[in-house]
Fold this protein.
Amino acid sequence: MHGALMNKRKNYVRATPTSKKYSKQSLIDAVNSALDSTSAAKLYNVPASTIRRHRRNQCLKNQIGCPSYLTSSEESYFVALLQLLPDFGTQPTGEVALKLANDYFKSLGLSDNPGKKWLSLFVERHSEEIKW
C-alpha cells in the first residue's frame, strides 16, 4: 500500500492557476444585468460567485482582480515624482522609491505601507516610464 501511495505522489502535478476566461466587459455586463447571478453567469460566462461578490462590493463593480492601493492619477503623480529624482542628483532605487512611496501613502491618508511586492508590481506596470 505504501508503494502505491508513493506512486500517486510521484505523478502528482500541482494545478496552475488558470487565467480568467471572461472579459472585463462581460463582467460589467453580468454585474449590471437584471438577471440573478446564476442566469447571468450562464449568459455572460462569468462565475456566479464573482458576479455576487462584485454586486455586494461597489468598489469592485468595474474591475477584474484585486483593487490597487492608488488610483491611476495617483500612480501617474508618483511616476512623475520618481522621474524628477535625477534632476535633484538622486537615482531612483528600490530603497528610495519605497521610502517615497511610504511618505506618499501617509500623505494620502492610506493606512497600508507599500512593500517590496507592491514596488515590484509598480515597476512592472511603469517599466517604460521609469528607468532604474
Notes: The chain is about 55% helix and 0% strand.
